[in-house]
Amino acid sequence: MASENDKSISGRKIFFVNPSNTVQRTVIEHLRTMEYETYIITDYRMAKNALLVNKDSICYFCIDDMLSREAWHILIKGITQNTESFIGIEVGIISDSIPENKKEEFLRDINVTAGFFTTMSSDTLLREIVKSLDKLEARGMRKHIRLNCMNDDHAELFWITKDKKMFRLKILDVSKAGIAAKIPASQANAVAVNQLVSDAQVLLTAGATPISMSLKISAVKAATDFLLVVLMVTIDTPKDSLDRIQEHITHTLQQDFLYEMRGYALDKFNYELAARESNSSAAQK
Fold first, then answer.
1. Residue 1 has pLDDT above 70, yes or no
2. pLDDT for position 2
3. Are 167 and 187 in contact (CB under 8 A)?
4. Rounded-to-integer distance, Cα 115 and Cα 95, Å
């Protein structure tokens, strides 16, 4: 489990369960641009395991379809009332259809700490969710989401010098702000602190067109048999290059999350049946 100090530094993962296309387009895409680490869960049966694995995360349930309102209530209640298993989880709710007079009833035994957002414009919804996320220190102290590329053989950075020499660096991690990479110690003469690499080419996916970037080396550190090189993005890097970097980070994190979740069985509990039984029991009282 991450400590309070860890969360304040590294931030928290944010999950959206069953988001509509509108929420994905007008909220989630903007949050990702703003460097919130955001994931989409399209199947509610994956939600509990995702939260069990990712402790201290934040989860927004979009309750307008897929399940009845009563079934959503039972699912969410099972998370918010089981704090021993769902450690540090903050829950929020998004709905365009729930009547205001039903909102209090829905919340009767659910502890919602990340906000309950009902009918409002997309701009307002985004703004209110950002307020909630910042209060919960969702980004922590980090300004940019970094993607670990150590196990990705295709992630590399290269450039060609004026005398036609090519230097290739293995990328260790990448963000919109910069890149950490390594180069063989035998090529130490290729890199120096404050060196500007104005025509760097970044390759993150096999077969993809390289991403053109302007980088400045901010640090070079000796390791065992290689040099660790830290390169920061300069203002001369095209915006579309930064957009491609972010799209790659977002896509890879989402796919890695889905791949991890394949190792866990889907939630087989019948929430609709439980809701019907609950309603029947209440009617008999």
1. no
2. 46
3. yes
4. 11
**Measured CA distances, 39 to 11, 31, 66, 78, 83 (Å):** 14, 10, 18, 21, 22
Q: What's at 250, amino acid-wise?
A: T
| β-bridge mates for residue 182, sequence order | 170, 228
79 pLDDT band, cuts 50/70/90, is very high
Sheet harboring 116-117: ordered strands across?
38-41, 14-17, 58-62, 90-94, 116-117
Q: Return the closest-CA partner of residue 73 out of 40, 38, 116, 39.
A: 116
Identify the burial level of 46 via C-beta atoms within 10 angstroms of its C-beta, where 0-12 means exposed, 13-18 middle and 19 or more buried. buried
Give the separation between CA 177 and CA 84, rounded to whole angstroms.
Answer: 38
Amino acid occupying residue 130 = V
CA distances, 5 to each of 1, 14, 173 (Å): 11, 18, 23
Instruction: Report the b/e string of 128-162 with b at 16+ CB within 10 A.
Output: ebbebbeebbbbbeeeebbbebeebeebbbebeee
Contact 229, 218 (CB under 8 A): no
Strand 147-148, strand 116-117: pairing: unpaired
How far are the Cα atoms of 115, 119, 163 from residue 112, in angstroms, in the given order? Answer: 6, 17, 62
**Cβ–Cβ contacts within 10 Å for residue 29, how many?**
14
Q: Give the Cα separation of 119 and 124 in Å (integer).
A: 10
Identity of the residue numbered 53: V
CB 230 within 8 A of CB 218: yes
Q: Are 272 and 68 in contact (CB under 8 A)?
A: yes
Tell if the pTM clears 0.85, that is, is over it. Answer: yes
Q: What is the pLDDT of residues 227-266, one digit of tens each?
A: 999 999 999 999 999 999 999 999 999 999 999 999 999 9
